[in-house]
Fold:
Amino acid sequence: MNALIENRRSIRKFDIDVPVTKEQLDRLLGAAMVAPSACNTRPWEFIAITKREILDTIAQIHPHAAMCATATAAIVVIALPQADGPAFFPQDCGAATQNILLEAVSMGFGTCWCGVFPNEERIPAIRELFSINEPKIPFCIIAIGAPAEAPERRGFFEASKVTYIT
Structure:
């Protein structure tokens, strides 16, 4: 298995004194934008945040994003549902998000993926904070920074969850 995949962890405590630069955010966003998407629709936009007050506000309004209080950056992934054709934006935005998580590991950063969509209780607050108008949908928030913890690996291969057809 690839070391980036094996080393990725959900980090909930960051070193608040280590900034994430615009250049580093651009690299993470570049990784997101090369993710696969259905028919190359690329149904996403991104908001990159390093402003302390906004990170603190996210920590207050999202019930599972308290780690933004120590993160030095965050990326909001915004889904752009297509009016015509099938809605594969959850898969596409999920792939973009995973690319950010893995690229962050390669750069020595930690991340935590905080879901927004499809939780109807979380969407309005994030929509309001960032002035995200419909039909755009806040998909998730990714807290980013230098890890101040090293959680143990929790994932593992479970053969019982696999059916082989040969």
Observations:
- The chain has a mean pLDDT of 95.
- The radius of gyration is 16 Å.
- The longest helix spans residues 89-106.
- The chain has five helices and four strands.
